[in-house]
Specification:
- GO terms for molecular function: oxidoreductase activity, acting on the CH-NH group of donors, NAD or NADP as acceptor.
- With about 180 residues, this protein is of the alpha/beta class.
- The protein is about 35% helix and about 15% strand.
- The chain starts with a strand and ends in a 21-residue tail after the last strand.
Length: about 180
């Protein structure tokens, strides 16, 4: 399986690459990165990993990275001091366009609880968390909500948004999957 990984040089992306290489049968990973030097040497020198340097708005480079991939996995996330011009949403617009051109229709993206779902129920902890993010990181919040809306509007893609409320470095912990406010 040939997978394109976006956001692969951040902590979550590096873990994602490692997980793919150890669990997917016969994997080949294309890492599309702004700064490939941030990828650990054991990954950058792995024969099952190809690195393509580029920006999210570079359709030509993204097209090169998208060549013959089976799916796109994205660990992209907002930066500190996130700009107001919605770079993630603009990036996903280009990514989706290039996916259509290459007839790649599986997209799995990392999102947050800020991306609401009609099946969510009210939850005080999540309400407070999302309200805090909306207040102190407003531009990141707006971009995350916008790219969630963009992806959800793609009826011709098989997409999954993995909404993770908090990511921490450390040992693996149990995962609880489900909608906000529902015991799962």
């Amino acid at each position: 399986m040939r997978l394109l990984i976006l956001g692969g040089t951040g902590p979550s992306g590096i873990l994602l690459i490692r997980q793919v290489l150890t669990t997917v049968p016969s994997p080949f990973v294309v890492v599309y990165a702004r700064n490939p030097s941030k990828l650990p040497t054991d990954l950058s020198s792995n024969s099952s990993v190809q690195i393509i340097e580029g920006q999210l708005d570079d359709a030509e480079k993204l097209s090169q990275a998208m060549e013959a991939v089976d799916a796109v996995l994205s660990a992209l996330g907002p930066a500190q001091n996130h700009p107001a011009d919605k770079p993630l949403t603009r990036g996903y617009t280009t990514i989706i366009q290039v996916m259509h051109e290459h007839k790649v229709n599986r997209l799995i993206v990392l999102g947050t609880a800020s991306i609401s779902d009609p099946n969510d129920r009210f939850s005080i902890p999540f309400y407070l968390m999302v309200s805090t993010v909306k207040t102190i990181a407003h531009t990141a919040y707006e971009d995350i909500v916008a790219f969630g809306d963009l992806i959800r509007a793609q009826d011709d893609l098989d997409w999954t948004i993995v909404r993770v409320p908090v990511l921490r470095d450390g040992e693996k912990t149990d995962v609880q999957a489900g909608y906000i406010g529902q015991v799962g």
